[in-house]
Every structure is written in C-alpha cells, then in structure tokens.
Amino acid sequence: MKLANRTILVTGGTSGIGLAFAKKFLEMGNTVIVTSRSKQNIDQAIKENPNLIGIAADVSQVKSVDQLVHQIKQQYSKLDVLFNSAGIMRYYDLFAEEVTGGQLTAEIETNLNGTIYVTKAFLPLLAKQEEAMIVNVSSVLANISVASSPIYSATKAGIHMYTDALREQIRAKNERIHVMELCPPLISETNLEDKMSHDKSTKFIDLPLGRLVDAGIKGMEKNKIRLNPGFSKIMRFMSKIAPDFVTHQWGKTMMKRMNNEN
C-alpha cells in the first residue's frame, strides 16, 4: 500500500510509538489525525508538530468513539488507514491488597476493548475506499507472557487473536482492507512502561524507536500481515519451541526486578 496522500488516524498518537508513526506519516505527505484522552497532550503534540490534527477521544468509551467517528465523517472525506496504538502498561503484584479490580481492568478497557471499539466503528468508512489498512499494535508479549505485567500480556494476546479473526472476516467479504499486526519489542524511548527501569540487562532486547518505525512503514507498504521486529522475532520463534520454559525464566527475572524496585 502506498503511504502518500492518505488520511490516517492514529489512536494514542500524542506520545511513544503512536506519535513516532504519526510524525513519519506526516513526512510522507499524509493527512494525519491523532487522538488522546488528554486535551493537554494533544495541544502539546500539535505545538511541536503543527501539521498534526488532534481530536480528544477516549477509546475505552463507546460514546467517545462514536463521537470521534462522527467528527471525522463531518470534517474529512475519507479514511484510508487506522493505526490502533492507544495503550497502557502496568506492573502488578496480584497478591497486593491495595490493587483493586478497577485498576486491573484498566488495561483491558483501553488496550483490548479500545482496539475493538475503534475498529468496529471505522470499518464501514474504511470499506468505502479502493484500498485501506488497519494496523493493530500488539507486543512481543502477544507471543510470550511476562509475570510482572499479567493484564497487559493478556490484552496483547487478545489483540493478536482479534487481529487474525478480523483479517479472515475481511477476506471472506472481499473487502479491500489490509490488516497488519505490529508486535514491538521493548522500546525504552516510549513512556509506556511507567515503572520498570531499563539497565544493561535489557539493552540487548531494546529496539530504537526509529528502527521500529522504519520497519513498520516497510511492512505496511508491503501489506505484511504481521511484523515481529528485533527481539520480537526471537520471542516469536521461542514461543513455538519452548513457550513454558521461556515464560518461566523471563517471569522470574522480571518479578525479581519488580520486587527490587518496590
């Protein structure tokens, strides 16, 4: 798919992976709309990138998503690419008494439900185009769970399964919509991981944000169905040959780090 003169919506597009892709899409000559639930974050992103278009929307709320769809239909003639990158990541000790049910489900509401709500809402608009694309950002943790982020791991595995099913439904209906899953590894330049620090032990699994964007753009242009850049490719392979061993070893390491930092 050619990524020029397109209208592109990036959810969670005011920081991290979403903002990095939004800026690249702008450089390539596209109309780029970013969303965030924070008006302050939108204003800051537009101040630093004046050609971005910002709309406040909470992807975890159906009513807010419906308002987003209405606004885009009213103001723009088309939507070619939906880039679902809105997400939050938390570290939880499931034995901690202070952790509430509401805290545990926040990632489900934003990461998984938000992806489902936004995709469903924009499918009719995307289907009107001669060629369109949906990119769902999952994670290396769609392949291997990590004990320190149990809910996040579950949401990314859910996004992986949902994306596969979505692709097959679109194929069955002969719609001209490409569907790609992007599985980033650890990206220390983002603010997604709001608690865990990064040290020499994570250096070999880290991927510079710029390299992720370059790989993602190439994958979109080639209509890839799934992209596992950097360490994600290794973990995808390991998940097939020794999933229990890798989950256990990685889980021990991450739980030790989390306990040391608490």
UniProtKB/TrEMBL annotation:
<dbReference type="InterPro" id="IPR020904">
    <property type="entry name" value="Sc_DH/Rdtase_CS"/>
</dbReference>
<keyword id="KW-0560">Oxidoreductase</keyword>
<dbReference type="Pfam" id="PF00106">
    <property type="entry name" value="adh_short"/>
</dbReference>
<protein>
    <recommendedName>
        <fullName>glucose 1-dehydrogenase [NAD(P)(+)]</fullName>
        <ecNumber>1.1.1.47</ecNumber>
    </recommendedName>
</protein>
<dbReference type="InterPro" id="IPR002347">
    <property type="entry name" value="SDR_fam"/>
</dbReference>
<dbReference type="GO" id="GO:0016020">
    <property type="term" value="C:membrane"/>
</dbReference>
<comment type="similarity">
    <text>Belongs to the short-chain dehydrogenases/reductases (SDR) family.</text>
</comment>
<dbReference type="GO" id="GO:0047936">
    <property type="term" value="F:glucose 1-dehydrogenase [NAD(P)+] activity"/>
</dbReference>
<dbReference type="InterPro" id="IPR036291">
    <property type="entry name" value="NAD(P)-bd_dom_sf"/>
</dbReference>
